[in-house]
Amino acid sequence: MDLLSISVTLIPRNGFTSFNAKEICSMVEKYYPADFTQQERYGLKI
């Protein structure tokens, strides 16, 4: 359910008004820790 709700924020309709980088970063750390390097995770925050 977490992944579904966060993927909705990536829909460009309404100019990404519901986009929340903090939530995306937490999902990356929770579900995909082996797929992103520390540098890539830091880049997501920026």
Tell me the strand percentage band: under 5%
**Rg calc:** 11 Å
Multimeric status of the protein: single chain
The residue ranges in which pLDDT falls below 50 over 5 or more consecutive positions are none
Q: Round the mean pLDDT to the nearest integer and report it.
A: 80
Q: Sketch the topology as an H/E string, one letter per element.
A: HHH
Number of domains: 1
> How would you classify the helix and strand content by structural class?
mainly alpha
Amino- and carboxy-terminal Cα gap: 25 Å
Biggest sheet, in brief? none
* Silhouette: globular
How would you describe the overall organization of this protein?
It is a single chain. The protein has 46 residues and is mainly alpha-helical. The protein has one domain (2-45). The protein is 54% helix and 0% strand. The protein is built from three helices and no strands. The chain is globular and about 30 Å long. The mean pLDDT is 80.
